[in-house]
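User: Could you go from structure to sequence for me? I need the amino acid at each position, not a summary. Structure tokens:
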């Protein structure tokens, strides 16, 4: 698979996953349930979420395009599929079902998958792993926001 085809495929899957996750949010951050929660003082303004996820998914798609050129293994495909599933399902679990503890477990697992990609997924080309840093940082922030809501509500 050529890099441009792979990049296009991963952009399609990753942004498609974001769209599905957004559709499953039931109002998400503008819902009455979410806006009445005691939120962390470091919760970013709403516009930051869209900018962050757009940047993250572009960089993650580039990372995956390169990774799958060099290391298209069953393990890599399984971890990528798991990442898509966890990323999409968190929105439904947290915003739609209000299962804050279960959502925290899901986001911790998602973070572990991305850290796996950083430390183990790019052994043949270690430089590409830095494309994951925004995703890793964002997931740490999002996990802290989820945990704060669990503890303070």
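Assistant: Here is the amino acid at each position, in order:
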């Amino acid at each position: 698979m050529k890099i441009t085809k792979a990049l296009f495929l991963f952009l399609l899957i990753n942004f498609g996953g974001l769209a599905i996750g957004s559709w499953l949010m039931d109002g998400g951050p503008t819902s009455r349930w979410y806006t009445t929660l005691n939120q962390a003082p470091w919760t970013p303004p709403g516009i930051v979420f869209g900018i962050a996820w757009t940047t993250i998914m572009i960089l993650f798609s580039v990372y995956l395009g390169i990774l799958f050129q060099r290391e298209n293994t069953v393990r890599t495909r399984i971890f990528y599929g798991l990442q898509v599933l966890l990323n999409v399902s968190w929105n439904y679990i947290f915003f739609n079902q209000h299962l804050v503890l279960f959502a925290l477990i899901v986001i911790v697992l998602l973070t572990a998958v991305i850290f796996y990609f950083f430390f183990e997924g790019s052994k043949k080309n270690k430089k590409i792993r830095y494309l994951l840093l925004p995703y890793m940082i964002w997931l740490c922030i999002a996990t802290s926001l989820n945990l704060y809501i669990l503890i303070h509500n």
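One structural detail worth keeping in mind: Helices lie at 3-23, 32-35, 46-70, 74-96, 100-119, 133-152.
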